Amino acid sequence: MNKKHILITGGAGFIGSHVVRRFVKSYPEYNIINLDKLTYAGNLANLRDIENAANYRFVKGDICDASFLQELFSTYHFDGVIHLAAESHVDRSISNPMEFIMTNVVGTVNLLNAARESWSRLLSGGDFENKRFYHISTDEVYGSLGETGFFTEDTKYDPHSPYSASKASSDHMVRAYHDTYGLPVVISNCSNNYGSFHFPEKLIPLAINNICNNKPVPVYGKGENIRDWLFVEDHAVAIDVIYHYGKNGETYNIGGHNEWKNIDLIQLLCKILDRKLGRPEGTSAQLITYVKDRAGHDLRYAIDSSKLQRELGWKPSLQFEEGLEKTVDWYLANKKWMDEVTSGEYQNYYQNQYDLR
Ligand code: NAD
Ligand code: TYD
């Protein structure tokens, strides 16, 4: 029997590496092709444990390169695409929005075109049966909540940052390809993730790294903004479930009903690290430093994931305190990973190894 070929884009990044690992380990009957440009956020060290697996292959490439994508699709005849490649950091989108438009919008449309062309050619007349294009998105497309309420799949899009606006545009294009060309798409919008292999420009790994190194922990504004945190491995399970059982044309919200004010979360991290590093309680909290607020800073995100729970039976497996302890333990045990990432060493090494094109 021919193995199915699944393309995962952005598989060397934070969430993508967890998704690649899950699919490689759980589905020996698939060939997993990980396509990643290896930007500053892409790190093949995130995948060392599975890099030699028989059903795994890494391809370095850019989703903004349409002809490269066409070639890739004609080589592998993909059965499915799980699209995570993106520029993902709000602060970077404020200083350089164009990169976000290129990768998140143009790159996504290139992928949609490559899938549509390849599948129409294979299945004359564009019968897309058994194919699937799964687009991974964020709850940030819905904008900002006040004190109460939750984002549902019917919440009107109202993005504020260049990052969330670029993700909203890509979501609309994915839906347009479904409605116009009948492409079999599914979309999920997830809340903030945390866990291992998270690039230390994002709040949780940045705070852990700074606390460990006795450096100031920057809190934007008053620290009163609220995020809804989900353990990354629970997100990977949700992606697996939606890829296999989600309905074409549908959107699923993913989240853990786990809202934290930034300042409370940072205080909790300080407490956990005081205990783990053997510091007197209250030591790490002295590193908290209030800094200028982020421009256009969304106040509150909170996801209602009841559709996914009801229709596909997914629910988060971990309580936040447990997940956070596990995450802190991982960073303490993987200091070398953090040192390499913060020094940029991994990029030099892997760029040299894979700069084949
Ligand atoms: P990340 O920044 O850690 O990883 C992104 C990956 O995409 C990197 O490996 C990078 O090298 C690759 N990439 C970037 N531009 C590329 C290009 N032009 N061509 C090919 N590869 C490219 O991001 P993440 O946090 O893992 O997020 C993954 C996806 O999930 C994104 O689409 C993001 O919008 C979405 N998402 C993230 C979160 C979160 O909390 N991190 C929450 C919800 C949704
Ligand atoms: P971040 O991890 O960048 O995710 P996002 O902006 O996509 O939600 O930020 C999470 C929250 O933490 C957000 O409200 C901004 C805030 N924040 C800080 O207070 N200090 C920091 O150094 C960073 C990176 C974020």
Overview of this protein structure:
The protein has helices at residues 14-26, 66-76, 90-95, 97-122, 162-181, 203-212, 232-245, 262-277, 306-312, 320-333, 335-343, 345-354, and strands spanning 4-9, 30-36, 56-60, 80-83, 132-138, 185-190, 192-194, 217-220, 226-231, 251-254, 259-261, 288-291. By secondary structure, it is of the alpha/beta class. It has a domain at 4-194 and 230-258 and 296-320: NAD(P)-binding Rossmann-like Domain (Rossmann fold), CATH 3.40.50. The strands form three sheets. It has a seven-stranded parallel sheet, with helices on both faces. It has a three-stranded mixed sheet with strand order 7-9-11. The radius of gyration is 20 Å and the shape is globular. The model has no long low-confidence stretch (mean pLDDT 95). It binds nicotinamide-adenine-dinucleotide and thymidine-5'-diphosphate. Nicotinamide-adenine-dinucleotide is lined by residues 9-10, 12-16, 36-39, 41-42, 62-64, 84-88, 103, 107, 136-138, 167, 190, 192-193, 199.
Named CATH architecture of the domain at 4-194 and 230-258 and 296-320: 3-Layer(aba) Sandwich
CATH superfamily of the domain at 4-194 and 230-258 and 296-320: NAD(P)-binding Rossmann-like Domain
- For the largest sheet, list the strands in their spatial order: 3-2-1-4-5-6-10
* Outline: globular
The major pleated sheet works out as: 7 strands, parallel
Percent strand: 15-25%
Count, helices: 12
**From the alpha-carbon coordinates, what is the Rg to the nearest angstrom?**
20 Å
Spatial separation of the terminal alpha carbons = 32 Å
Average per-residue pLDDT, rounded, comes to 95
CATH class division of the domain at 4-194 and 230-258 and 296-320: Alpha Beta
**Order of helix and strand elements from N to C terminus:** EHEEHEHHEHEEHEEHEEHEHHHH
CATH topology of the domain at 4-194 and 230-258 and 296-320: Rossmann fold
